[in-house]
Amino acid sequence: MSESRGREDANNCFACGPENPIGLRIEFRLDAEGVCHAEFTPGDNHEGFHNVTHGGILFSALDDVMANWLFLQGIRGYTARCEIRYREPTPTHTRLLLEGRCEKRKSRMVQLRGIARRADTGNVVAEADALFMIERDA
């Protein structure tokens, strides 16, 4: 299983960088089936409305669980397009389970899917479909 720690080119990443003082510091891992997983519990500094997680924070977490599907395999890519659907408001201090997987790959384009679920209920709170462009030398 691969983990997202220790890559110097991402140490300051907002979502996963261990050296970013205001970042989310999410730790990603790739399982044997090729699915990227992480857990994240948004706090008070991540809210939009009182006690509700800001949608941009959820977007960042989903974007990074998909990006780390590439990253943990040594592939560097960038979000070309992303569509997110919010399914229900996410209270702060609610542990989320994130998952990212590849749907399709063609040449330098990779179609990925990200899902965020509440750990306590299993409800999907947000899901994203994205197209990532892989660097030419990757």
Topology:
Blueprint: E1 2-3, E2 29-30, E3 36-40, H1 55-71, E4 77-86, E5 96-106, E6 109-118, E7 124-134
Antiparallel strand pairs: 1-2, 2-3, 3-5, 4-7, 5-6, 6-7
First-to-last CA distance:
21 Å
Question: Which oligomeric form is depicted?
Answer: single chain
> How would a crystallographer describe the biggest sheet?
7 strands, antiparallel
Low-confidence stretches: none
| Rg calc | 14 Å
Helix content range: 10-25%
CATH architecture grouping: Roll
Number of domains: 1
> Which structural class is indicated by helix and strand composition?
mainly beta
Principal-axis shape equals globular
Give the C-level CATH assignment.
Answer: Alpha Beta
Strand content: 35-45%
β-strand number: 7
- Helix count? 1
Strand order of the largest sheet: 1-2-3-5-6-7-4
CATH homologous superfamily identity: Hotdog Thioesterase
What string, H for helix and E for strand, traces the elements in order? EEEHEEEE
Q: Indicate the mean pLDDT.
A: 92
CATH topology, by name, is Thiol Ester Dehydrase, Chain A
